[in-house]
């Protein structure tokens, strides 16, 4: 069982594995998603009919439809449109002569609490749409790919401060604020965007550091930034946050780091991937 979205893939399957059961992947409107998978994958409705007809000519069995909205989706209504489009493709399949019985609604479902669109908001829209277009008596098996939902909150990343720089802002006049507000700290930690924090570059993730020890109530906070350990200026994790003064050797913690992080890490600049 495998997906396809082009005639070239159909020709490969016909040549190498003609008994495969195929799932036609359709494109979605993922313009409001952080990870726009349909830029790379998926067939349009018009192309879908041509592909189904070609599959029939090649005597290859197409058993269903799949789509994937991509991570970071901010508009629940596009799920409804995707499910509606999938229903259209099912109708096309019947017209062409296929008995299609599988719908894969993909993934991209959020797990963490600090995102704009909650999981429950998405399911409250998906479930009625599935009931409408693929009711229980339709005989269609519905599956999903909720990888992020299961593992995003399963891991926390601990990073160690390996360097620190104090920046003193130039005073411009007698009305400047007190001395502490003129101090900015830059911290460098032993992981970065080429390692576990690649989600910042590829998924536009916004991460907040947690301190290993709770600050004292009267402790001063300073404008701070956090960067990775590589030589690249892109390797910035947090451009601005307020932190008490930290020191080399202290740890910072980052929650919800279990999805698309260390799995896509590299050893750029010779730095090893973190130990799990």
Automatic annotation (TrEMBL):
Stored SUPFAM superfamilies: Alanine racemase C-terminal domain-like, PLP-binding barrel
Pathway stated in the Swiss-Prot or TrEMBL entry: Amine and polyamine biosynthesis; putrescine biosynthesis via L-ornithine pathway; putrescine from L-ornithine: step 1/1
Cross-referenced Pfam families: Orn_Arg_deC_N
Catalysed transformations (reactions): L-ornithine + H(+) = putrescine + CO2
Keyword Transmembrane helix: no
TM stretches of this protein: none
Top-rank EC class of the record's enzyme: lyase
Keyword Cytoplasm annotated: no
EC number(s) given by UniProt: 4.1.1.17
Domain of life of the source: Eukaryota
Keyword entries, A-Z: Phosphoprotein
InterPro entries: Ala_racemase/Decarboxylase_C, De-COase2_N, Orn/DAP/Arg_de-COase, Orn_de-COase, PLP-binding_barrel
Domain Orn/DAP/Arg decarboxylase 2 N-terminal: 1-151
Protein name: Ornithine decarboxylase
Organism: Pontoporia blainvillei (Franciscana)
């Amino acid at each position: 069982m495998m997906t396809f979205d082009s005639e070239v893939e159909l020709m490969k399957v016909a040549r190498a594995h003609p008994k495969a059961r195929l799932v036609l992947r359709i494109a979605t409107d993922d313009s409001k998603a952080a990870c726009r998978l349909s830029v790379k994958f998926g067939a349009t409705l018009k192309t879908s009919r041509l592909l189904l007809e070609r599959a029939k000519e090649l005597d290859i069995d197409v058993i269903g439809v799949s789509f994937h909205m991509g991570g970071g989706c901010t508009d629940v209504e596009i799920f409804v449109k995707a499910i509606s489009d999938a229903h259209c493709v099912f109708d096309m399949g019947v017209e062409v002569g296929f008995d299609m019985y599988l719908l894969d609604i993909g993934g991209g479902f959020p797990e963490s609490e600090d995102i704009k669109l909650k999981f429950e908001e998405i399911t409250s829209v998906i479930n009625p749409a599935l009931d409408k277009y693929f009711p229980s008596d339709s005989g269609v098996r519905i599956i999903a790919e909720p990888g992020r939902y299961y593992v995003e909150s399963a891991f926390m990343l601990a990073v160690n401060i390996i360097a620190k720089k104090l920046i003193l802002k130039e005073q411009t006049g007698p009305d400047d604020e007190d001395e502490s507000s003129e101090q900015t700290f830059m911290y460098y930690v032993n992981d970065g965007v080429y390692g576990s924090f690649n989600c910042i570059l590829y998924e536009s993730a916004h991460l907040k550091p947690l301190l290993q020890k709770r600050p004292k109530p009267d402790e001063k906070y300073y404008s701070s930034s956090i960067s990775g350990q590589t030589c690249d200026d892109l390797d910035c994790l947090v451009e601005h946050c307020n932190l008490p003064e930290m020191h080399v050797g202290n740890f910072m913690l980052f929650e919800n780091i279990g999805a698309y992080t260390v799995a896509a890490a590299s050893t750029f600049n010779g730095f090893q991937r973190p130990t799990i």
